[in-house]
Amino acid sequence: xxxxxxxxxxxxxxxxxxxxxxxxxxxxxxxxxxxxxxxxxxxxxxxxxxxxxxxxxxxxxxxxxxxxxxxxxxxxxxxxxxxxxxxxxxxxxxxxxxxxxxxxxxxxxxxxxxxxxxxxxxxxxxxxxxxxxxxxxxxxxxxxxxxxxxxxxxxxxxxxxxxxxxxxxxxxxxxxxxxxxxxxxxxxxxxxxxxxxxxxxxxxxxxxxxxxxxxxxxxxxxxxxxxxxxxxxxxxxxxxxxxxxxxxxxx
Length: 251
Ligand code: MG
Fold this sequence. Notes:
globular; binds magnesium ion; Creatine Amidinohydrolase
């Protein structure tokens, strides 16, 4: 494992990628409505990122064809945008997107309700976002990596939901995926030490049912909940500083 610690100046530079990533996510999320295709969302996000002078972080990554990952309902992550996928009232959709500028990457995600959704779906979204913020709050300097996973897991499982274990958060910097892996489960006080200069993406994936996954299948990307239950996903890129966690993917 090789962790690339960032200097305060480098963290400042990463804020630019973070701001553009956050704007792309927010503005694309505002377009979510019944009748729009996930490819339209993707094209919008790509244009926005390029207009900001950045480039999409996901496009071409291991051959991925989108600027966003768009994952509907029982899809957990890595759904491929398509003209054939039209959002329907009652769906939930995770949008994950990132931008690269000045050689630094930003990465963030959120799950949106399409029109009005069931109370159960709304609660899943709410709990997953809360779990992400609990994980961020737990990312304190001189704490341990397991503090983050423990905090996320406590919120998600406390609400009766399943935490996905096969996919995890990650270090981020010049590369979208750097060391360390940041699991959404764990024991407080265990794992590597959290030090100022670490920049990580905290991204709980929470299923309404079991946390087990299935896939990807023919498209080589889309991951589903094993039991077909709804899945939600939120993500922020944060830096660990002496003063505490600092969210970089914000406007
Ligand atoms: Mg990520």
